[in-house]
C-alpha cells in the first residue's frame, strides 16, 4: 500500500531533504536581491554625498577666489583706468601689477586653478578674445545667468586641457555697473576622475549633467534617450534633492540614482541596469536549482534504502508492542528473539526495548502511584491558600466603612474582594499568567492598604516581559501575608516590595519586607526539609514558615529542577525571598543575586 511506513518514510525523507533546498533556491536569491538593492542604494548615495562635498569644496574655493579678485584694489584700479582710457604707461603698470596678483593666487592654489579677467569688448589681462560673444560659456552666462560653465577649452589659460569655470560679473564696486567677467578656471579632471569612482554593478556609470541632460564634462551620456528624458522630468517635477528613479526600456529596468548639486543647475546621476546589478544573484539561483535537481535524485535513492532498513525491523517491533498494548508482557518477551536488524541504531533500540519490557510493568505502576500522590499534594497545597481570617477582616472593614458612611471606600473594597473571589473560584486551570497573579495580589494589597491605612506601603515593580509567563496560582499571597505579618510583630508600619523580572531564560519573583527578619534556624530548616518526595514538604509544613514552605513545595512539584529560590534575611532589617524559574528547561543559577 502507498501509505505503508516505508513509503511514508520515503516520502518524508525526500521532502525534508529536497523541498527546503528548492525553497532556499528561490528564497535566498530573493533575500540577496533585497539586500543588494538596499546596500547598492546606500553605498551609491554615500558615494554621491562624498562627491557632492568634493565638488562643493572646489567650487567654493573658486567662488572665494573670484570674490577676492573682484574686491581687490588693484582690480578696481585697472577697471577704472580701462574705462577712462588712461595713459598707456599707467594702465600697463597697473595691468602688470594685477597679473602678479593673479599669478600669486594661482601659485598658492592647490587645485591648479587659474584666473582671468575679461571686459565685454574682449579685452583681458592675459590677452584679448575678440570672439568673446561667440563663446558658449559666455552666452550661457549672459542669457541664462549660468555661473558655472561646462567643460571647454580656453586658449588664454596656461592649462591646455579641458576646464570648468566659475564666472563672476566684473563691476565697479562704487557704481555697481558690470563691465566684464572674472573667470576662475579649474581642470575638469579634478571632478571627472572623482566621478569615475562612483560605480555600481559591473557596467554602471555616473554622470554630471545639467537640466538639459548635457554632460558637464562633454561627451555623450550613455543612457537611452527616453530613460534620461523620463528621469529629468521626474527630477524637475519633484521636490526631492536626491533619490532613486526606476524606468523600463525594451524590457530592461534601469535604476537611476540622482542628487541635485548646489552648483548652477548640475545634477549628479548614477545608473545601473537590473540585470547588471543582480547578475551574481541570478547565477546563484541557477546554480542552486541545478544542485537541487542533483540532490533530489540522490535523495530518492538514499530515502528508499534508509526507509527499507528502518521499517522492516520496526514493523516486527510494532507487533511486539501490540502484545504490550494488550498487557501481555510475557507474549512480547517471547516474540522479541524473532526480530532481526542490520541497522545498528535500530538493533540497539530492539535490545533496549527487550530489556525494558521486564521493568515496564513495575515502572508504570510506580509512576501511577507517584502521580496520584503529586496531584493530591497539589490539591492540598492549593487549599492551604484559603485564609478565612483575611476574609473576616475584609468583611469587618466593609462593615466599618459602611457605618462611617464611606460609600466609595465600601465600593472599592467590594470590587477588590470581588476580583479576588473570581480569581480564586476559577478552577478551570491551576496555571495562569504571571500578570494575572500580580493583578490578584494588587487587589489583595489594595485591601491591606485600606485596613492599615498609612501604616503600610506596598510597591510593585512588574516587568512587562513577564506578564505572559505561565505560573501556578497563589504563589504570591502567602509570601505577602508572611511579609506583612513579620513587619507588624515589632514595628508599627510595614514596607513591602514586590518585583517580577525576566533575565535571559530566567524569570525572577522577589518579595521583600522591612520586618523583624527570619532566624538562621528557620532558613536552615527550610533547606534541610527539601526531600526527594516533594509531597512531604507541602503536606508536613508546620510553624511560622508554612506559607513559604507551601509555595516552595508547590513550585518544586510543578517545575522540578527548573525552579530554585534564595532567602536573604537579617534580624530587625528585613527578609527578601527570590523565586527563580527557568522557562526553557535549564536549571537556574543557585543563589543568583538578582535586584
UniProtKB/TrEMBL annotation:
Question: Which SUPFAM superfamilies does the entry link to?
Answer: ATPase domain of HSP90 chaperone/DNA topoisomerase II/histidine kinase (SSF55874)
Question: TM spans, by residue?
Answer: 9-32, 288-306
Query: What coarse category fits the chief subcellular location reported for this protein?
Result: membrane
The HAMP domain sits at 308-365
- Keyword vocabulary terms for this entry: ATP-binding, Cell membrane, Kinase, Membrane, Nucleotide-binding, Phosphoprotein, Transferase, Transmembrane, Transmembrane helix, Two-component regulatory system
PROSITE patterns to which the protein is assigned, alphabetical: HAMP
Write out the GO MF terms.
ATP binding; phosphorelay sensor kinase activity
Tell me where in or outside the cell this protein is found.
Cell membrane
Q: What is this protein called?
A: Histidine kinase
Native source organism of the sequence: Halalkalibacter alkaliphilus
